[in-house]
Structures are given as C-alpha cells and as structure tokens.
C-alpha cells in the first residue's frame, strides 16, 4: 500500500464507506444481460478489471455470474468492505457455488498496475467520471484483449417519473453547492460515449423498493455530502427525512431508477 496521491484519491469515499456499503443500490439483472449482449462478452469465465470498484457492488454481481474480477480502487476503506464481503460470499447473488477469490488492488485507474491484454472487460460502475477521461480509456485499452470491451454504467434516480423524487432532488440542488443531478437543467450523463468511435448505449429503467432510512444512508454516501460539514449534512438529511415521511408515512419508497449503460471498443 502506498500513501500520498493514492490516499488523496481515495479520501472522498473512504469517509463514507459504511454508508456507501449499506445505502447504495445494486444494478438490475437486466443490466448484466444488456452488458453481455452489447459487448459480445459472456460474463461466465470473463476476466474483468472493475475500476473504481468501491465496496464491490458491481464486482459481487459479476463474480456471481462467473466472472474473474480484478477490483481496482484507491480507497483503502472502500476496498476493505469489498474484500471482507467477498470473504463471506457463497454465491448468494447467483445460482452457482462460491466464486473464486477476488483480486483487490489499491491503485489509481489512470495507471493500472496490470499487464497488457489481460482482460475481456474493463468496467467503470459510477466511477469513470472520477478519472482522467483520456488517460483512463488509454489504460483500459492497454489492458484489454483485442476483442474486449469497455463498460461504463451509472445507476440514477429518474426524477422525471415521480413528483416526490423531483422535489427531493430540488431540495438537494438548493442545499448543496456542488450538486450535479436531474434538478439541474443542463445535467447529463458523464460523456464516456465521446471517447469511442463505436459505442452502444442503453437506458434500463427499474424500480428500487427501499426503506426511508436506507435511502437516506445512500444520500449520506454521496461525495457532495462527504464534502459538507457534519452539521450541515445532518440538517439536510433531517430535512429530507421529514419530507419523505410526510409523503410516505409507512416508511417505504418505490424509487423510479434508470441505469445508463455505455459499452465501447
Ligand atoms: C461512486 S463510487 C463507485 C463504486 C462502485 N463501482 C459502485 O458501483 O458502487 C466511485 C469510486 O471510484 C473510486 N475512484 C476515485 N478516483 C479513482 C481513480 N483515479 N481510479 C480508480 N478509482 C477511483 C472511488 O474511490 C470510489 O470507490
């Protein structure tokens, strides 16, 4: 393990690793079907470099589908959750037995400590926008086999589908100076498509059923919350809780979501 620049890269999410682990949603099954279809890569047996793997949301699902995953992240706390969960895995997300041990690498995705041509897939699940847009893709191309593919995906609240969610996002926009999301008119997905001549894109709608407290844990795990003072973050979470409880006294949310999936070569 090294300190310095890596520590700086990992700092943002390391401070919210527990909230991230507990509060962020997984990706829907349909995304994995689309990923295989668009990339032409069968996940079973595929070697995948999961860059910005964090606590392992995508890593776990890929492994459950038979992929060998090299999980890369500069966040020591985030990776520690990924490793400890992997140690307790028994294939619970799939029908198969326990997946092979995960390789967790504390590193910067802009300088992958991996040999050329080792991977069938390089994945960035909600992470590519944290990397250098040019250097990261050059690195991904280097570690890919010739017929491999680069995958970006983002799990997003689909605020246009529910007034209460639009209001929730609007409260965030009002309270958080660095907010960048659907309440901002010019908001758009990270421009990973621009890095490729051949790119397949897909929007995958799904619904997340979640309790209000878990939903608020997810809120706490965003980088813009980690950047706020604890008191300001608490006030914002409290305000959101009051409004959500008013709208859903039973405490359960049905959140319209959509995944933006981009597969490039
Ligand atoms: C929003 S989290 C996504 C985690 C996970 N992939 C998921 O789907 O939930 C972004 C992750 O990117 C990582 N990250 C930030 N800068 C990075 C870099 N230069 N190289 C690799 N990962 C980076 C962060 O440490 C964090 O774990």
Structure overview:
This protein has a domain of 184 residues: 3-Layer(aba) Sandwich (Rossmann fold), CATH 3.40.50. Helix content is 38%, strand content 23%. Helix 8 packs antiparallel against helix 10. The longest helix is centred in the last third of the chain and has 18 residues. Bound molecules: S-adenosylmethionine (SAM). S-adenosylmethionine binds next to helix 1, helix 4 and strand 2. The site of S-adenosylmethionine (SAM) has 23 residues, from helix 1, helix 4 and strand 2. This is Class I SAM-dependent methyltransferase. InterPro entries: Diverse_substrate_MTase, Methyltransf_11, SAM-dependent_MTases_sf.
Helix content: 25-40%
- Protein structure class: alpha/beta
- The radius of gyration computed from the alpha-carbon positions, rounded to a whole number of angstroms, is 18 Å
Report the order of strands and helices: HHHEHEHEEHEHEHHHE
Q: What is the name of the CATH class of the domain at 4-157 and 186-207 and 257-264?
A: Alpha Beta
Task: Give the second-level CATH assignment, the architecture of the domain at 4-157 and 186-207 and 257-264.
Answer: 3-Layer(aba) Sandwich
Q: What would CATH call the homologous superfamily of the domain at 4-157 and 186-207 and 257-264?
A: Vaccinia Virus protein VP39
CATH topology of the domain at 4-157 and 186-207 and 257-264: Rossmann fold
Number of strands: 7
Characterize the main sheet: 7 strands, mixed
Please state the average pLDDT score.
Answer: 93
Q: Can you tell me the overall shape?
A: globular
Biggest sheet, spatial arrangement of strands? 3-2-1-4-5-7-6
Strand fraction equals 15-25%
What gap, in angstroms, lies between the N and C termini?
A: 32 Å
Count of DSSP H/I helices: 10
Bound molecules: S-adenosylmethionine
Low-confidence stretches: none
């Amino acid at each position: 393990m090294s300190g310095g620049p890596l520590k700086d890269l990992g700092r943002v999410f390391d401070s919210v690793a527990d909230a991230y682990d507990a509060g962020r949603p997984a990706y829907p099954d349909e995304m994995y079907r689309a990923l295989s279809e668009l990339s032409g890569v069968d996940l079973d047996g595929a070697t995948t470099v999961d860059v910005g793997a964090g606590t392992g949301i995508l890593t776990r699902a890929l492994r459950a589908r038979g992929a060998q995953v090299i999980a890369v992240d500069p966040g020591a706390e985030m990776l520690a959750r990924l490793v400890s969960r992997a140690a307790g895995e028994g294939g619970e997300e799939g029908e198969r037995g326990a997946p092979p041990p995960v390789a967790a690498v504390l590193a910067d995705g802009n300088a992958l400590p991996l040999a050329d041509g080792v991977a069938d897939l390089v994945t960035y699940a909600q992470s590519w926008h944290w990397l250098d847009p040019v250097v990261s893709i050059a690195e991904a191309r280097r570690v890919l086999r010739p017929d491999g593919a680069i995958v970006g995906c983002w799990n997003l609240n689909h605020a246009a589908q529910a007034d209460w969610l639009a209001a929730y996002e609007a409260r965030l926009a009002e309270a958080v100076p660095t907010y960048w999301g659907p309440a901002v008119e010019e908001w758009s997905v990270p421009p990973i498509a621009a890095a490729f001549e051949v790119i397949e894109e897909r929007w995958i709608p799904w619904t997340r059923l979640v309790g209000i407290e878990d939903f608020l844990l997810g809120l706490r795990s965003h980088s813009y919350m980690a950047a706020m003072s604890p008191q300001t973050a608490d006030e914002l979470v409290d305000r959101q809780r009051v409004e959500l409880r008013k709208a859903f006294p039973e405490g359960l949310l049905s959140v319209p979501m959509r995944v933006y999936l981009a597969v490039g070569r």
